[in-house]
RNA sequence: GCUGGGUUCGUAUAACGGUUAGUACCCAAGAUUCUCAAUCUUGUAAUAGGAGUUCGAUUCUCCUACCCAGUACCA
């Protein structure tokens, strides 16, 4: 029987979601939407010690910004659902609120002989680890050591049974079978095998906080929530055999989800996975949104750095996946159609900030002048400039191809709003020579005397004709004027600039440079 | 250390036994322009190393090297 596709993104609210996490969520989302299935959010907060306030809201807001909208687990107000309803039948979606569910599954495993109660204290285990380390060995809680430790396998029932009630620091551990080959299939990596002798008896449930660990909670919830595919980061591959074994122990192998382990996102230079420190060090964000940590440090986000969510999603999609064609620009809709696990690569992808910027530039040029103007107006206002909307729109149309971010507009075109505060020395030395500027000033007079309509179309032709007919050097003359208008030898065509700033401002700037340089 | 995963230009990747090993970003050169940017054209640059299997290996197998992950009562 064909099951409805249901995938989940299950972050732990221990801090801001970084871009690798967003990518995992994105791939899950694309996979689900392509099959008309459900994308579910589940909050894995089983470690009360690592809980970070605000992290959960951050994660949901980040996904929302990216257009990754969950079908289940989060409601329309961006809140994690706590009460079951038709749309959210598996509520609550926060594992800390599902506490009561897991205990019986842990007990079930003990009863079926797949798990046992362990009474070793943290100190005892630390000592055992230290003792092994001193001998150059690694302590491992498994078949070779478990009988010499304190648990319901090594002690008679009469002894351990009372401890269940009298102590509150025991755990339930998985009883890893001996010398068994676990054969697994991964949608990305193919067939993988491992011998259970290399694995340990993982803690599944902790009496101390009456909460499961990741492994138990994950398997139980994926089963209960009828998850069909688990698409997660590569760091989970080593625990896949345990998860397989848990499905077997519960007798759920018929509905066990398929697994796909995604390659990691690596730092741009050097080795290792992308970490939150890399970004600010290298001048690119690692997070989707700004994040203020408890020490008062702010980590940069793509949103605040001026990236469009579409560009961010697009670049993320291409980090570890390719469409098999040469298309590089994809809308979310196109991604949903084109995405395929078959084209996800096996190896980690080094993030390339240059390519990220290129993506933003491409998206910026696809935006309408109106949308860009709307974004630019507040920036202008912050510079103390209240310019007419239509005029700003005209300017935006002229400069949008030169920018990567909307925030670049000001740097590129501030001279269209305010006179240059200074003149670039290098350019001035190069162009503002007497033989040039005497001619340039004549051209300025020509422009001031021009009585036709002041538009680029009407002005440009006659202006160039005037210079040519006098056989003056076009480049030198124009750059002298540009220096006066822009403050440097870069920027738009003279006719464009003059048209935008108008005749009066043009006159003022000519006077200003005359006073300064003549 | 052990276990698992990975390895094509600097980067992201294509080529799922037969190609002059393709594309994009970056970089460089040229064209264009009144400058800059944009644009266009061109260029530099890769199958980690070694054995096999095969008529033929980037592609399959093994070994080595290197990288990554896991090795918690963290996820």
Give a concise summary.
With 518 residues, this protein is α/β, with parallel strands linked by helices. It is 44% helix and 10% strand.
- Give the helix tally: 19
Model regions low in confidence, pLDDT < 50 over at least 5 residues: none
What Rg, in angstroms, do the CA atoms define? 32 Å
Looking at CATH, the homologous superfamily of the largest domain is Glutamyl-tRNA Synthetase, Domain 3
| CATH class descriptor of the largest domain | Alpha Beta
Helix content range: 40-55%
**CATH fold-level label of the largest domain:** Glutamyl-tRNA Synthetase, domain 3
Q: How does CATH name the architecture of the largest domain? A: Alpha-Beta Complex
Total E-strand runs: 14
Category by helix and strand content = alpha/beta
- Beta-strand content estimate: 5-15%
What gross morphology would you assign?
elongated
Question: How would you characterize this protein structure?
Answer:
By secondary structure, the chain is an alpha/beta fold. It has a four-stranded antiparallel β-sheet. Helix 1 packs across helix 10 and helix 18 packs across helix 19. The protein is elongated and about 110 Å long. The N and C termini lie far apart (87 Å). It binds one RNA strand of 75 nucleotides through helix 4, strand 6, strand 7, helix 6 and strand 14.
């Amino acid at each position: 029987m064909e099951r409805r596709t249901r995938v989940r993104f299950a972050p732990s609210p221990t801090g801001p979601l970084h871009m690798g996490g967003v990518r995992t969520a994105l791939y899950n989302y694309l996979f689900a939407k392509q099959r008309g299935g459900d994308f579910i959010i589940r909050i894995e907060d089983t470690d009360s010690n690592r809980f970070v306030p605000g992290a959960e809201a951050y994660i949901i807001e980040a996904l929302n910004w990216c257009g990754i909208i969950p079908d289940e687990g989060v409601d329309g107000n961006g809140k994690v659902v706590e009460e079951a309803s038709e749309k959210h039948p598996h509520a609550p979606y926060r594992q800390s609120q599902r506490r009561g569910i897991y205990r019986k599954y842990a007990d079930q495993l003990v009863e079926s002989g797949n798990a046992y109660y362990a009474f070793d204290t943290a100190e005892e285990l630390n000592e055992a680890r230290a003792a092994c380390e001193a001998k150059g060995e690694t302590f491992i809680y498994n078949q070779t050591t478990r009988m010499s430790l304190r648990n319901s396998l090594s002690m008679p029932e009469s002894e351990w049974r009372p401890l269940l009630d009298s102590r509150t620091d025991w755990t339930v551990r998985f009883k890893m079978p001996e010398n068994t080959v676990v054969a697994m299939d991964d949608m990305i990596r193919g067939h993988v095998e491992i011998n259970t002798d290399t694995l340990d008896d993982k803690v599944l449930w902790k009496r101390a906080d009456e909460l499961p660990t990741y492994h138990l909670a994950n398997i139980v919830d994926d089963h209960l929530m009828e998850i069909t595919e688990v698409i997660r980061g590569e760091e989970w591959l080593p625990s896949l055999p345990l998860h397989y074994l848990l499905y077997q122990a519960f007798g759920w192998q018929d509905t066990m989800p398929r697994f796909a382990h995604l390659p990691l996102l690596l730092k741009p230079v050097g080795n290792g996975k992308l970490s939150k420190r890399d970004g600010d060090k290298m001048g690119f964000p690692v997070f989707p949104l700004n994040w203020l940590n408890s020490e008062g440090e702010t980590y940069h986000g793509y949103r605040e750095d001026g990236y469009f969510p579409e560009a961010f999603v697009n670049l993320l999609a291409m980090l570890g996946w390719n469409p098999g064609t040469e298309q590089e620009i994809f809308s979310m809709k196109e991604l949903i159609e084109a995405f395929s696990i078959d084209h996800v690569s096996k190896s980690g992808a080094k993030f390339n900030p240059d390519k990220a910027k290129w993506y933003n530039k491409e998206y910026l040029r696809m935006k309408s002048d109106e949308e860009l103007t709307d974004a630019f107006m507040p920036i202008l206002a912050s510079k103390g400039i209240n310019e007419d909307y239509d005029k700003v729109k005209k300017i935006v149309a002229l400069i949008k191809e030169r920018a990567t971010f909307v925030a670049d507009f000001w740097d590129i075109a501030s001279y269209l709003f305010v006179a240059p505060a200074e003149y670039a020395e290098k350019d001035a030395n190069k162009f503002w020579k007497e033989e040039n500027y005497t001619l340039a000033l004549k051209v300025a007079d020509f422009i001031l005397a021009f009585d036709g309509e002041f538009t680029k179309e009407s002005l440009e032709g006659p202006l160039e004709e005037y210079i040519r007919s006098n056989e003056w050097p076009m480049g030198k003359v124009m750059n002298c004027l540009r220096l006066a208008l822009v403050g440097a030898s870069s920027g738009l065509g003279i006719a464009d600039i003059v048209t935008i700033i108008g005749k009066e401002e043009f006159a003022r700037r000519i006077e200003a440079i005359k006073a300064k340089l003549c």
